[in-house]
Structures are given as C-alpha cells and as structure tokens.
C-alpha cells in the first residue's frame, strides 16, 4: 500500500475526489434506477461520508506534498474549507441545472459536518498514521543497551 501511495503524484487523488463529488452531485441519477432510501435522511449520511472522505483526501494530498515536514494547521483548515465550499458549489449547481436534482440546505449542512469530521479525524489520528506509514520502513531497528552490573 505504501508503494502505491508514493507512486501517485500529489493532487491526483484530490482531482479524482472532486470528479467523484461532481458526478454524485450533478448527475441526474448517479446511482441508476436503484432507490436506496434506507431510512429517512439516509441521503444526508451519504453527503456526510462523501465530504468526510473528500476533506481527508485533500489533507492527505497536502501532507504528502509536505513530506518529510509536518503539515500546518491553517493549511489543513483551508483544505477543509475547500471541501465545504465544494459542497456548497455542488448544491448551487443542482439549483442552477435543471436535471431533476434540487438544492437542499440540509445537504450543505451534512457536507460541512462531514468535512469538519474528516479534518478532526486527520488532525487527531490520520496524519500521524500517514506520516508513520510514508516515512518509516516496516522493519524496526531496536538498539540494545548493555547494562552495567
């Protein structure tokens, strides 16, 4: 997995995330004829998860760009805001396009909450794991100290 992550150029995953978001947001019927209303508001869970992943990918791309250095909080917040603005733009796009999709303010809220949760996850746990994976080999070198008696 580490080799695959290293081989993908910075920005490619973010571009793919934007394309995926655009497809799911602007296509008239992105899931085909399936009607996946599992429970009331389940589409909001989809929005939340999509933007959680988008913010995480944006931050990971930035972290990869910064390696071996640490990321900066203000830049992580900026990329999170980019994911939130993308969500707003996609909802406005649904309002402008007459493709059967409708603008929903609760979708914008779900998008923003997802992006903020992605930021929190990356900040608290994900970036540390990513850096450890990218910078350290799978072999651990232990140094043994001699104890004097």
Keywords summarizing the entry:
single chain, 149 residues, mainly alpha, 5 helices, 68% helix
| Mean pLDDT rating | 88
Stretches where pLDDT is under 50 for at least 5 consecutive residues are 139-145
| Biggest sheet character | none
Strand content: under 5%
Helix percent band: 55-70%
Order of secondary-structure elements:
HHHHH
Q: Kindly state the number of beta strands.
A: 0
Distance between the termini: 45 Å
Q: Measured on Cα atoms, how large is the radius of gyration?
A: 20 Å
Shape: elongated
Number of helices: 5
Helix-strand makeup class: mainly alpha
How does this model look, in words?
With 149 residues, this protein is an all-alpha fold. It has a domain at 48-134. Helices cover 68% and strands 0% of the residues. It has helices at residues 2-7, 12-26, 42-66, 73-96, 105-135. Helix 2 packs parallel to helix 4, helix 3 runs parallel beside helix 5 and helix 4 packs antiparallel against helix 5. Mean pLDDT is 88; it is low at 139-145.
């Amino acid at each position: 997995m580490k080799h695959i992550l290293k081989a993908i150029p910075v920005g490619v995953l973010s571009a793919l995330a934007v394309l995926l978001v655009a497809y799911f947001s602007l296509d008239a019927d992105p899931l085909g004829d399936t009607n996946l209303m599992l429970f009331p508001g389940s589409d909001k869970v989809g929005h939340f998860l999509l933007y959680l992943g988008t913010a995480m990918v944006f931050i990971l791309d930035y972290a990869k760009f910064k390696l071996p250095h640490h990321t900066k909080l203000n830049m992580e917040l900026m990329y999170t805001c980019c994911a939130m603005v993308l969500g707003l733009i996609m909802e406005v796009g649904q309002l402008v396009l007459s493709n059967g999709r409708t603008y929903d303010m609760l979708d914008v809220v779900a998008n923003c909450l997802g992006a903020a949760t992605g930021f929190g996850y990356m900040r608290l746990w994900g970036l540390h794991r990513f850096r450890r994976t990218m910078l350290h080999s799978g072999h651990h070198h232990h140094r043994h100290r001699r104890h004097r008696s």
